[in-house]
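Entry for the shared binder. Reason: the reviewer on the internal report wants the predicted structure included alongside the sequence.
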Amino acid sequence: MSPQIPTGGLNSQAPEEYPSYSADGRYLAFASERNGHRDIFLYDLQNRTLVSLPNLNRRDSSQDQPALSQDGRFLAYISTERGRSDVFVYDRQTGRSQLLTANSRGSARHPTITGDGRQIAFQTSELGQWNIAVVENNAAP
């Protein structure tokens, strides 16, 4: 079986990286530099279109390594908004992002989110080596 490369805005001339499916299989999040800086995009596989993510991507920082909740409502990701790698969670219903590593002194990478969006796990260097941390998403029902 050979891989298929879907059309409809999923791919561009820039590298597309860190794909993450919603558990229901409808959405695919990924990171790309197609706009000249690292952003996160959401592709609706059912409608074969990109989904708008208002207020998520910022021109003054990079957004990377997305992870989706089961239905695609919540999106955990890494951002350099504060000058280092932090974990945020974006709520597609409200169009708002919440910083989850405000009190962390280390860098973060590789977030993952539970199906219901209530918890986010990630790697943190806060204690001088890479460890796993878990935080609650207060926006989840």
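Summary line for the report: The chain has no helices and eleven strands.
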